[in-house]
Amino acid sequence: MAFKSAVNVKLNGVGVSPGIALGKAFVVDRGVVEISLYSLGTEQDIEKEIAMFLKAIESTRNQLQETKKKFQEKGHKEANFIIGAYLMILEDKILVDETVKHIRREKINAPWALKNTLKNLQKVFSDIDDEYLRERKNDIDYVGKRILWNLMKTEQPDMKKMQEKVIIVASDLSPTDTAHLDLNKVLGFVTNIGGQTSHTAIMAKALEIPAVVGLQTVTECTENGDDLVVDGTAGTVIINPSKKVFNEYIAIRKKYHTLEKELLKYKPLPTKTPDGIEVKLLANIEITEELPSVIHHGAEGIGLYRTEFLYTGRSEFPSEDDHFHIYRKVVETIAPNPTTIRTFDLGGDKFLSETLSTKEMNPALGLRAIRFCLREIEVFKTQIRAILRASALGKVRILFPMISNMEEMYQIDEIMEEVKNDLRTSGVPFDESIETGIMIETPSAAVIADLLAKKVNFFSIGTNDLIQYLLAIDRINEHVSYLYKPLHPAVLRMIKHIIDTAHAAHIKVNMCGEMAGEGLFTPILLGFGIDELSMNALSILKVKKIIRSFSYHDAQDLVNQILAFETAKEVEKFLINVLSSRYPKLFPELQENPVHH
After folding, report:
1. Is 373 tagged catalytic?
2. Calpha distance 87→596 (Å, rounded)
3. pLDDT at 522 over 60
């Protein structure tokens, strides 16, 4: 690696896939398409501009169809749905008609008119509280950018120019981008935008490639061929590192690889404490490309299969077969271990098409998840039928999100029985004893957990939303996000209450929120008596090592101590002291970082 004069330019972002990548930058998309505004003189000029815009739409459509064809050949159904969402954005009346109106009414050039339309659409998505949906705003950005490329005849990145292993640098990466990449030549991903649920994050985790997103200016700071360090654990990128810093990161990478090899030894071992308490470790997934990683890290099943990708960006709901073919692949791959399929956690605010959208002041507290399902019962039944059909192929559990009262449970029971009767009448096989569970993510559900426990086989604690609702914190509001504290005494006491109540009713408790995969919290959850933890596959072996070396008795002692603390800060300080001394290799981030810039 050659070392350049402008050294150690450090950027901080969000680490979404752990590990260290060292290599050359390959810039595939700078994200900025320079546009100038100019006025159109005659009616003929206006019509010509509109025709040029519609031609760019058609070119973009053809390019996306070509990409979709590639995915079909490779059998990637989820990516097909995402490309389908892009195509639906192209067809959306808001995008096309509003741009044409801007051109006609304001007599301006097509790229500038499109820019105005995109700005309005992006604002709608930016105001949405849900992280998954906010990431879909990037789908609009991507489609808009492709149209602009075609409008302005901008040269698009040539992925075939990758002659060696490189680190991909982009404003954002979409499925169409990764479809054209030779992933065998990718060492890491870094992007300007994105979060934990962005396509880049999901793909990087699935491929186990270090990735940092949300860097904001990385494409402006990086040139093709620049030397890069990507620390996907710390969420940092260093452009043109000095020889000293480069060598320090080689040493850190070596430690990661050594730790990874050591952790893989735990894969065939049972997840049991030294005093014999067993905890099942499962994986959260969103796309089937994650399945090899799930199996590689020894997950004991799927604890949360998110199904939202099937619905977003469409003008019509997916068919029963759309659902079934995707579920079948997951269930058969994971069998005999269980696959827990969560019914869609979407609301009217989460669809692009006007026919399906309902503008709400606070979508997080509005018509979403089970509330939307119980209003759109036929849509709900379609998904349940597909899940039940898949249950004939392996162990399947159904998980219902955002339950807040018993009336919802009565309605769900009624709908489930209707669908089962239909399948019986039609002679369609399914698991008659299929287990059902609910997400405990609202304070009301936690308070009436004793009543809800009578209706289901298991609880799954969704800590992300539960913490937000319990502490009255909007996680995406920068003014109050610092108050989002998983170790807040109220959060810990509520989690303990949920687990104790479930066990009193003789049902098991899973946790599938971010807390489940954070090793710092493992001893607390163990001491609370959690039965299952579901997380990103990359976290499984780390959590397993902790469980196998931390006795249930010690965990209970630890819980008794932390429940006496009054603040989250006290709890965190206590945990860091315990775990950093007990597992220094597992928690390098809790040690003093040896690399200074």
Report:
1. no
2. 46
3. yes
